[in-house]
Amino acid sequence: MYEWASQAYRVAAEAGQDGPAARRRWAGQNEYDAENMHTECTRFNRDQDARLRQCCREAKVTRYALISYLLRAWMAAWETYRECGGR
Questions:
Q1: What is the distance in angstroms between the CA of the first residue and the CA of the last residue of the chain?
Q2: Model pTM?
Q3: Is residue 52 one of the residues assigned to a domain?
């Protein structure tokens, strides 16, 4: 397995340990979100979705927080891998 993949896995495995962040809203947030935030998504079949939801319930993390954390961890690992010349 590539070193970046091992690193990303270790970081992602810790995602469930972070408690869900407090949801904060303010006047104008919908407009800000529409202009500045983007959604990344994937499609799961029923079995995959049920498994993901069960794992998230057990880990006490939302799917959205988990997916965001996993993607950011992977990007950081990939950038480190790329900066090291792909070794």
A1: 12
A2: 0.64
A3: yes
- Residues in contact with 24: Cβ distance below 8 Å, sequence separation at least 6, in sequence order: none
Q: What is the pLDDT of residues 22-49, one digit of tens each?
A: 566 778 888 998 999 999 989 999 999 9
Q: Is 39 contained in some domain?
A: no
Q: How many CB atoms lie within 10 A of CB 44?
A: 11
The answer to whether position 27 is within a domain reads no
Name which of 86, 66, 59 is nearest 5 in CA terms: 86
Q: 74 lies in a domain?
A: yes
Amino acid at 27: A
- Under a CB-based contact definition with an 8 Å cutoff, are residues 67 and 5 in contact? no
Structure tokens at 49: 């979705």
